[in-house]
Amino acid sequence: MPAGIDKQDTRLLAPGVRRPLVLWVDESAGDCDCFSRLLRDNGYDVWISSNYDDGVRCLGGRPFDCVVVDQGSPAFEGRLILEYSVALDRRLPVIVITRFHDMGCYLEAMQLGAVDYLEKPQAAAEIIRVLKTHLPSRYLAA
């Protein structure tokens, strides 16, 4: 398993139904810890990757229901995850989140296929709302 991955077994809600699985890619250990707890407390399974190369390896390893990637700096290091996610499955929702809001990165992310672009810090309720908005419909009742 790539370094930086926090793997939890998928917990079944009912026979054949599983919790939504989110890949969170962020180089900030504090943000990874905070957001993984938030998502788990709200009914999601989460894999955490603390760097972009490991995030790409994770994407190739199992099907995720959503990807959240930190933009990185204004150089947009998270582009690697966004491009690879879209290449694997155009229907896979990718949300870009950042502390360095940059209009150029925003436009590039949306053109590359991101479904949303959020600034940190973001209220917990807003993160959950955005995830629910973009998850496949099979999870709406979950």
What is the topology?
Blueprint (H helix, E strand, L loop, with lengths): L11 E3 L2 E2 L2 E5 L3 H13 L3 E5 L2 H10 L4 E5 L8 H10 L5 E5 L4 H10 L3 E4 L4 H11 L8
Parallel strand pairs: 3-4, 3-5, 5-6, 6-7
Antiparallel strand pairs: 1-2
Give a description of the structure.
With 142 residues, the chain is α/β, with parallel strands linked by helices. The protein has a single domain, classed as Response regulator (Rossmann fold, 3-Layer(aba) Sandwich), CATH 3.40.50.2300. It is 38% helix and 20% strand. It is built from 5 helices and 7 strands. The strands form 2 sheets. The protein has a 5-stranded parallel sheet with strand order 4-3-5-6-7, sandwiched between helices. A two-stranded antiparallel ribbon has the order 1-2. Helix 4 (103-112) links the parallel strand 6 and strand 7 (116-119). Helix 2 (52-61) runs parallel beside helix 3. The longest helix has 13 residues, at 29-41. The chain is globular. It starts with 11 loop residues before the first strand and ends in an 8-residue tail after the last helix. The model is unreliable at 1-13 (pLDDT under 50).
The radius of gyration is 14 Å
The residue-averaged pLDDT reads 86
CATH level-two architecture: 3-Layer(aba) Sandwich
Shape: globular
Write the CATH homologous superfamily: Response regulator
Instruction: Tell me the fraction of residues in β-strands, as a range.
Output: 15-25%
* CATH-defined topology: Rossmann fold
